[in-house]
Amino acid sequence: xxxxxxxxxxxxxxxxxxxxxxxxxxxxxxxxxxxxxxxxxxxxxxxxxxxxxxxxxxxxxxxxxxxxxxxxxxxxxxxxxxxxxxxxxxxxxxxxxxxxxxxxxxxxxxxxxxxxxxxxxxxxxxxxxxxxxxxxxxxxxxxxxxxxxxxxxxxxxxxxxxxxxxxxxxxxxxxxxxxxxxxxxxxxxxxxxxxxxxxxxxxxxxxxxxxxxxxxxxxxxxxxxxxxxxxxxxxxxxxxxxxxxxxxxxxxxxxxxxxxxxxxxxxxxxxxxxxxxxxxxxxxxxxxxxxxxxxxxxxxxxxxxxxxxxxxxxxxxxxxxxxxxxxxxxxxxxxxxxxxxxxxxxxxxxxxxxxxxxxxxxxxxxxxxxxxxxxxxxxxxxxxxxxxxxxxxxxxxxxxxxxxxxxxxxxxxxxxxxxxxxxxxxxxxxxxxxxxxxxxxxxxxxxxxxxxxxxxxxxxxxxxxxxxxxxxxxxxxx
Length: 478
What we know:
Layout: H1 2-25, H2 37-53, H3 62-65, E1 69-71, H4 87-112, H5 118-146, H6 166-183, H7 203-220, H8 226-236, E2 246-249, H9 260-267, E3 273-275, H10 277-286, H11 291-294, E4 332-336, H12 337-349, H13 358-372, H14 377-385, H15 398-409, H16 414-424, H17 447-452, H18 454-464
Antiparallel strand pairs: 1-3, 2-4
Helix pairs in contact: 2-4, 4-5, 5-6, 5-7, 6-7, 7-8, 7-12, 12-13, 12-15, 13-14, 13-15, 15-16
């Protein structure tokens, strides 16, 4: 009996030992349970850039809605269909789950870092400020697309977050920008190695990007709060991107880190897009020197021809997007000098106080855009002398002059083109061939919010005047 008891205890001991070993064996020691903060930040930055630039009709329709491009066979998105593909859900998921979640966790891990040396503490503070600026960029994009959004409760324990008033969100984003700028220290370090793809750890450039966000936001709210817009402009005066400067994310030549436009235009093997007649006709009228950089000539011709916006268009008949955009390493521009100069031209035209005149900033923006796309000084001179382009000679409204030229210059930046159109109602866009309604002024809320967060969704829809594509957002009062 004694031997049996000992044998039994031995079995229990072996089982306990085996259980412990099995538990240890079940852990992949090469796979960290917590991603390093800097890796999470870098991944979020890549995902932001992918979402901004992609042509994938399951993720982003804004190059179509800006009427830079139109479709060939499948035309739902060019005709503003938000149900078949549920684009709002894709935008929402990308920004909240893929990007803001990573940024929030990166900030949390960074806050937990304990440093002894002051230089390390200062670098930590810079990293947190940079992450904050990226978060602000994301929330500004979301509220400018949807209106009221989950914000104060977006990442709380509640699975049913309320939607915050969009103007209140905007004002808070401005406060956060001010604080982030104040925390940036150009004499200190920030991200290690290649984690900061945008500026390589250059804090002065991050300051310019943050001040650029203030200018951008100021012009968005200028029609509803000119005094606040002026305050924001004054704080940023002379502190934004100068000539040749930009915030651009550079991709790699190997998947999964390629520019998604290469994936959409080349790797997919599909021919889904042609140039839209809206922008091609406008550029043809102006003899715009950027046409060859944006588009190919129509097959078997020596002219640029855009497909009918919203119609089914033959790929073999119309101009295509140029090979420039088929490079897998092509950078995604999040903000640049050209964009800033158009905002400052608009501010001066509105009578707001900025350094320089509307014409000076307008000419600077056009000049930089043409040169950026491979034009020459002679191209610039000829274009600016065109009576329809010349700021002084053209007697059209400032909205038409600045709005049209900003829209042309921001080709490939669908969000900027669409928002510029919404703010200034210029240029006049074509009516979609198969859905003769006005160009939408917002994305509708995702279906999941309607079904899973119904009470808060209903309150938000009522607050903005209805969850419709045609609902104008709080800043769109003209």
